[in-house]
Write a structure and sequence with these properties.
The protein has a single domain, classed as UDP N-Acetylglucosamine Acyltransferase, domain 1. It is about 15% helix and about 35% strand. The protein contains one helix and 20 strands. It is globular and about 50 Å long. The two termini are about 15 Å apart.
Length: about 190
């Protein structure tokens, strides 16, 4: 479902993107080319700041927002997701939040009030809250990272993890074209 927010903003979705009919996109959202938005995802840009303004939620080209993902933002703050980034099933991205390009966010992870640089891998069931993750950083499954966490204690990202991240992007890019071809059958 594509709908306006109370401020009257309507999502801008590139014609090559695929949005599952069960997903809900509400408000000031920009979806770039060849993006996949899976079943039951909810992307909602509807809160305003004290001045009555809001920044958009932006999803970069060739990224994928998988089943059950929730993306929202507090008080109109920006949420930006780079290109070729995967947000896996049932994750929550709550702004303010900036996620770079080539990033993988694993199942059930929660990101809030953070900046994630390019090529980062956050594995499943992890929390990143109130901190910045540098380029190429690796967050193992079930980790909780906040502004007090010593990032030097975490292991380096491996080539295998980078290859996995890219394979997820490629698989979801193929889904875009496949679902676009049959979308009138729904």
């Amino acid at each position: 479902m594509i709908r306006h927010n109370p401020s009257g903003d309507l999502p801008q979705i590139h014609p090559s993107a695929f949005v599952d009919p069960t997903a809900i996109l509400c408000g000031k959202i920009v979806v770039a080319e060849n993006v996949f938005i899976g079943p039951y995802a909810v992307i909602r840009a509807d809160e305003v700041n004290e001045q009555g303004q809001m920044d958009p939620i932006v999803i970069g080209a060739h990224s994928n927002i998988q089943d059950g993902v929730v993306i929202h933002s507090k008080a109109g703050a920006a949420v930006t997701i780079g290109e070729r980034t995967s947000i896996a099933h049932r994750s929550i991205i709550h702004g303010p939040c900036q996620i770079g390009s080539g990033v993988f966010i694993g199942f059930n992870s929660v990101l809030f009030n953070c900046a994630v640089a390019d090529e980062v891998v956050v594995r499943h069931n992890s929390v990143v809250d109130g901190c910045d993750l540098p380029h190429g950083f690796y967050v193992p499954s079930t980790a909780h990272i906040d502004r007090h966490t010593d990032l030097s204690l975490f292991p380096a990202k491996t080539a295998t993890l980078s290859e996995f991240s890219e394979s997820v992007v490629q698989a979801n890019n193929q889904l875009v074209s496949g679902y676009k071809a049959i979308q009138n059958e729904f």
